[in-house]
Amino acid sequence: MNRCPSCNAPFEIGDAICARCGAELPAPYEAWDATDDDGYDTGEFANPYPAASPEVAQMIDLGTHPVQTAMGLSHVLSEAGVAHALYPPLETGPQTVHLLVPEAHADAAWQVLHRASLDPRELTILAGADVYLDEQVFAPGTVVLAEGKILEVLNFAMEDPQDGSRFFDVSGHLLTAGFIDIHTHGMLGIDTNQASAEDFSRWSFAAATHGTTAVVPTTVACPAEELRQVLGNLHTAQTAGLPGARLLGLHLESNFISPEYKGAQPPSSIFPADDPRAEAVLAAITDFVDAVCIVTVAPEIPGVPALIEKLVNMGVIVSLGHSAASYDQAIAGLDAGASQVTHLFNAMSPLHHRNPGLVGAALERDELYTQMVCDGVHVHPAIISMAISAKGAERFVPITDSLQGAGMPDGAEFFLGGQHVTVHDGVARLDSGTIAGSIMTMDAVVRFLVERVGWDLGEALAMAAASPADALNRPDLGRLHHGAAADLVVLDQELNVRLTFVGGEVVYRAEP
Ligand SMILES: [Zn+2]
Ligand SMILES: [Zn+2]
Asked: Do 298 and 239 reside in the same domain of the chain?
């Protein structure tokens, strides 16, 4: 759509005066011969910006876009591989610029132009790393950040413009979207159920040291009063501002699960969704609904299908797990609005060829996102590989399911939901021997997927960022595309975290 440079009102091609404010409008397009010797047929050019606009103009109209150094702009466009034609011929200085860009390059051109119009001191440039995008790698590439968001991703290594922008030479490294952990009970001695607002804040930083830029702290089943306390503390921490990873909201491994497949959940807090105690739990969720991300339930438990509908209508994501569900009961949960499965294979009835159960439903139904603990202890690497093949990387969400032992040394002891846990040989177990969550971190998960499962690096990185973002319905996270949150991580060749950004700011930098 064409807009008035003075008041931003839309106008029709051919209008000379803005109908709203009376300002003189840019020259009418039909006066131009746009099929001249630049060789482009104007019919191929579209204005895709804003992306939501269905209207297609014949060319990008910059109007009075404040391009300060037009010749510099031309240079940047060529450097970025953007084929272009500038009309009319440019002179240095502020002016009206009309730009013809082939449709395929229009997005890139707009990003470059947007950058050219910003104060360089507002820009952060990370140049020279192999940049991992969803489906391709720019090796080397450049990522430019502004206003807390990704401004542009370029398929070449930009040189330091020395114009006041913050420049990071990250050549020899990998750059990718920050990791997102949607199922983690804690780390470094912090446990979600017991966490104070300060603990959440410490956790936010500790996660960022492992390349994780968004966390969904996860509770074990607990009384409503305890849940209310945790939600309140998380809300306080979120409001106060966090030093590292975003804390997106709680994941409740809820009360409404199968006693038979409770895993490490304390039995005293497990009850059906039509139990009188359920009301107080639902009230806590309702009161703090903005601090609730995911609720795990077992679909076969009385009252749960109705509860799923209620939660989904509140904007909460429902995951199926800790369950003895038959295939049909699992599908009923899906039909009620559940969109995920919690730690596939763990704490659910096993796959049987005549009784596929929740595992079968998860692997068969494409729409279900599948969380899987990727630590080599909870699930054999061969099963992880099979599950990724069955689901596709875009529906596979690796999780740590980590406990407070994550980041702690061997021999450390702690309590989970009142039960004693010991870390030994990289495994956390209850005294009964039951595995009680992992001590993984997301960077270790990525290394595990590549080194032990043997999965493709690019897909492993996407599974650790884009897949969980999609599973949370957060298109603003998990990808390095224009307009997304500037949450990213720089890794060395051994996939160790060197530098973590959240919202365009450095939150962690490894010692050299
Ligand atoms: Zn669990
Ligand atoms: Zn868990």
From this structure: yes
CB under 5 Å of ion ligand 2: residues: 401
Range of the domain at 474: 177-493
Residue 307 is classified by DSSP as H
Tell me, in angstroms, the distance from the centre of ligand 1 to residue 60's CA.
52
Based on the fold, state whether residues 425 and 450 are members of the same structural domain. yes
Q: Is residue 508 part of a domain?
A: no
The angle at the Cα of 342, spanning 336 to 345, to the nearest 5 degrees, equals 115
| Mean confidence (pLDDT) of the chain | 84
The reply to whether 221 and 159 lie within a common domain is no
**Residues 445-478: pLDDT tens digits?**
999 999 999 999 999 999 999 999 999 999 999 9
Comparing CA positions, the residue from 508, 490, 476 lying closest to residue 244 is: 508
Mean pLDDT of 341-348: 97
pTM of the model: 0.81
Interval between CA 150 and ligand 2 midpoint (Å): 32
Decide if 163 contacts 174 (C-beta within 8 A): no
3-state secondary structure 431-498: CCCCECCECCCHHHHHHHHHHCCCCCHHHHHHHCCHHHHHHCCCCCCCCCCCCCECCEEEECCCCCEE
Contact 301, 273 (CB under 8 A): yes
Q: Which DSSP category does 405 fall into? A: T
| Residues assigned a catalytic role | 401
291 CA to centre of ligand 2 in angstroms: 18
In angstroms, the CA 244 to CA 212 distance is 9
Give the ligand whose atoms come closest to the C-alpha of residue 440: 2
Q: What is the DSSP letter of 311?
A: H
For residue 355, CA distances in Å to 65, 236, 340, 362 come to 63, 45, 20, 13
pLDDT digits (tens, 9 = 90+) for 405-455: 887 778 888 887 678 888 888 788 888 988 777 889 999 999 999 999 999
Tokens of 119: 């104060």
Residues 149 and 200 in one domain: no
CA 251 to chain CA centroid, Å, is 16
- Residues 6+ positions from 315 with CB-CB distance below 8 Å: 289
Beta-strand runs (E) in 179-255: 179-184, 186-187, 190-191, 212-219, 246-247, 250-253
Residue 72's pLDDT is 47
Q: Which of 84, 99, 117 is the last residue before a domain boundary?
A: 117
264 and 223 share one domain = yes
